[in-house]
Amino acid sequence: MLAQHEREHRKMTFAKKSSENTKKYTELYADFCSNGYTPNLAREYADYFVLDAKKPAAGDILQAARLYNKVHDYKTEAVFLEKLEDMTKKLTNEEKFVYCVEGLLNKSKIGNWRDAEDFRTENINFMQIYSEKVDIKLKAEMYIALALSDCAAKHYTSAFRLLTGFGYKPQGRNDTMLLEILITGVYICAKSGDEASLSNTVENARAAMKLFNQFEHEWTEAYYEKMIEDAANGII
User: Which of 131, 155, 210 is closest to 178 using CA atoms?
Assistant: First the structure.
């Protein structure tokens, strides 16, 4: 979830700034900082900024979808992503890019590999071209999504190659995106059934966590430890 100042610098449309909207977002962001990603946070955000809004902004729909993704509620996430299907021509390029990444992640995590493959084919040219204009973490999210779509189709070697081949460089010792890439590798190995590779990827992810000298929130360390454990059990 983005801090208020981060939202204001993204090339995405969020709810119009007002005292009520700012107050509600500040309240939800404080909840996020204290408790992390929770079903209640996703539900409250979606209710206020999307379901109860007269004209919900694309950025808020995407944020609601991403929050549901974080708590593994992929069916509800899909409902929010569907709200954007007829809006793609009205989206900014960054919004469309995030929509494509989230759509591919959602279909892959649900396991609809044919739908994921079709969606990827339809949007891959735009995603690859625009990925050169986004920050490195959004670009990394695209490669995670592409890897998971290959994994859903049981193309495990190509999935792992996508993760390791695009050249992500750690952004300091407290880089959570590097952790997410490594955790995706754990998941792919778990789904492939390669026990030796699974053991190695789990060790790599845990070694990366040991490099951290601080975590952004009190819950962050436990959150990533649970992600590693879940990924090793085929849950992402």
Answer: 210
SS3 3: coil
Q: How do residues 92-145 score in pLDDT, each as one tens digit?
A: 999 999 999 999 999 999 988 999 999 999 999 999 999 999 889 999 999 999
What are the residue ranges of helices labelled H in 83-217? 93-110, 113-130, 136-152, 156-165, 176-192, 195-210
Tally of CB atoms within 10 A around 198:
21
Contact 122, 107 (CB under 8 A): no
Q: Return the pLDDT at 5.
A: 66
List, in order, residues 6 or more apart from 145 with CB less than 8 Å away.
101, 102, 104, 105, 108
Q: Which amino acid is at 39?
A: P
Q: Which two tokens stand for residue 14?
A: 């969020």
Q: Is the pTM above the cut of 0.90?
A: yes
